[in-house]
Amino acid sequence: MVTKSGTQALPAPSRGRVIGREIWHSTRPILFVFALWELAGRSGIVHQALFPPFSTVALRLYELGQRGLLFVDLAWSLYRLIVGVALGILLGTAFGILMGASKKIEVWMLPILDFFLSIPGVAIYPVVVLLFGLSNQAIIVTLAFEAALTVMMNTWTGVRSVPRILIDAARSMGASFRTLFYRVMLPGSLAFIVTGYRLAFTRAWRILVATELMGGLGFGLGFRIQQGRQFFDAALVLAGVLVIAIIGVITERTLLRWVEARTVERWGTVT
Amino acid sequence: MAEKLKVVGLSKTYLVDQGTPYAKEIPALENVTLTVSSGEFVTIIGPSGCGKSTFLMIVAGLIPKTTGEIFIDGRPVTGPGLDRGVVFQEFALFPWMTVEENICFGLEMKGIPRKERQEIARRYIDLVGLRGFEYAYPFRLSGGMKQRVAVARALAYEPAVLLMDEPFGQLDAQTRGQLQKMLNDIWERTRTTVLFVTHNIREAIYLADRVVVFSERPGRVVEEVVVDLPRPRDPWSERFFTYQRKVADALGGEQAGFF
Ligand SMILES: Nc1ncnc2c1ncn2[C@@H]1O[C@H](COP(=O)(O)OP(=O)(O)O)[C@@H](O)[C@H]1O
Ligand SMILES: [Mg+2]
């Protein structure tokens, strides 16, 4: 193909090929780690019962899947994660924007936010358990709490980063506070907000597994790992960890990337 | 001609670092009185930092005044509103809206129904020569194109007065010239009332019916020069040059750096 200026244009690769290559590039290093794991497991440095190779764990995972137990655990964990983070996102976004938009609210909320942010999420859990018992609610509340704080902090930073001149432009056209909120502050801070959601997911996911590990509940990936440890079932422990990692990567890579590609990247507000 | 905009005894003092030992008062404007007639194009020129933007933003209702009165069509101005359109030096387009959506924003605030909004937006996109860019996001546009959109956005909802704060100050010389020509064309056709801030003498004379010269900070009106030249103006004519000299002298002449 020859373009107007006479230079040779490179043939454009097909969309499928581009996506395929992207997937290959991001999975290649992981496969390499699995291979190392397999070798280490078989080398006999550590007894196979304590550190089984990848193939044994994969087989165990397959068994768990066949019995259906894996999916029950997964469903429980995801249920807690999604409900907790969703609650946290709703509250965190609303309060974060209010805090960024109003100096009065900021003066009151910021010290409180700083105070709670300094407490690790897992340390909140025992307190919540005192109120809710060892229950689903306790986990969900803990996750919502952590997610809300994280989202609030990022949203607040985002709103303050919205250029003054854009707020002025909207005001000059008679925009009400409501309009400013939805049409200027929210989209203007979206890059930060999405980063906040992403962080909230990651943190909530860690806390979820930690709280499940503390036991008491009959299902959940963390619970299953804990059970594996009690019965010296190393393959079960590692299988649980593997699923946790895979789920983490999938939420990060698909859900949130999708949101970003459709908003802030289209607007050129992030590159 | 009817008075469109009337500013009486406007003063502004900025208070900085309040509540600290460094608290200070910065007088930015001192007793400015200015009247703009309906359909008149007035430019304000003055040295950098003399309070031009402050003046325009107070008229826009975006920053509070210290003393004085502002009237549009006899009604006192208390805050921002759709009776004034503002074009900022920094373009100030919403990055998350396409060209068309940016222009529709003001129309929406005015309560115009969706279908009509789109028709009006299209008309103004044509007016500023951006047909084909309706769905482009601002980051894909050059500086000149962005400012065309901003002009269209401010004109589209038909404000009584158009306020422009050094709108072409960030553009290269040629683009700047093109936009000056475009603005002159649009103004000749629409005869909107315009208050235009600049620190460029040639721009001021090329566009204005009347050039208002501000002093150093705190800004005061030191001279008003009525430009009596047929439009579009010939910037190489003898008379254009005479006006240039007159405004430069009012600004302090060659000693002040105007030549
Ligand atoms: N928000 C502010 N707080 C304190 N001083 C300000 C503020 N804005 C402008 N000033 C001061 O007021 C003066 C006039 O500023 P400005 O109106 O931007 O001038 P111009 O547009 O003519 O260059 C300057 O000395 C500037 O430093
Ligand atoms: Mg200025």
Oligomer: heterodimer
Note the beta-strand portion of chain A.
under 5%
Strand portion of chain B: 25-35%
**Helical segment count of chain A:** 12
| CATH architecture term of chain A | Orthogonal Bundle
Mean pLDDT rating of chain A: 86
The structure class of chain B reads alpha/beta
Query: How many alpha or pi helices of chain B?
Result: 7
Helix content of chain A: over 70%
Question: Rg of chain B from C-alpha positions?
Answer: 19 Å
SSE order of chain B, as H and E?
A: EEEHEEEHHHEHEHEEH
Weakly predicted, low-confidence segments of chain A: 1-6
Low-confidence stretches of chain B: none
Strand order of the largest sheet of chain B: 6-7-8-3-9-10
Q: What is the CATH superfamily classification of chain A?
A: MetI-like
Count of individual domains of chain A: 1
Task: Describe this protein with a few key phrases.
heterodimer, A: 271 residues, mainly alpha, MetI-like fold, 80% helix, flat, disordered N terminus, B: 259 residues, alpha/beta, six-stranded mixed β-sheet, four-stranded antiparallel β-sheet, 26% strand, globular, binds adenosine-5'-diphosphate, binds magnesium ion
Descriptive overview:
The complex is a heterodimer of chains A (271) and B (259). Chain A is mostly helical and 271 residues long. Chain A has one domain: MetI-like (MetI-like fold, Orthogonal Bundle). Helix content of chain A is 80%, strand content 0%. Chain A contains 12 helices and no strands. Chain A has helices at 15-43, 54-67, 69-101, 103-117, 121-132, 136-161, 164-172, 177-188, 190-213, 221-230, 234-262, 264-267. In chain A, helix 3 (69-101) runs antiparallel to helix 4 and helix 9 (190-213) packs antiparallel against helix 11. Chain A is flat. The two termini of chain A are 30 Å apart. Chain B has helices spanning 52-60, 99-109, 114-127, 143-156, 173-190, 201-207, 238-250, and strands spanning 3-16, 24-37, 41-45, 67-72, 75-76, 84-87, 161-165, 193-198, 210-214, 221-226. Chain B is built from 7 helices and 10 strands. Chain B has 259 residues and is α/β, with parallel strands linked by helices. Chain A binds chain B through residues 163, 165-166, 168-175, 179, 183-184, 187-188, 190, 263, 266-269, and chain B through 57, 60-62, 80-82, 84-86, 88, 90, 92-96, 105-106, 109-110, 137-140, 157. The structure holds adenosine-5'-diphosphate and magnesium ion (MG). Residues 14, 16, 26, 28, 46, 48-54, 217 of chain B line the site of adenosine-5'-diphosphate. The site of magnesium ion has 3 residues of chain B, from helix 1.
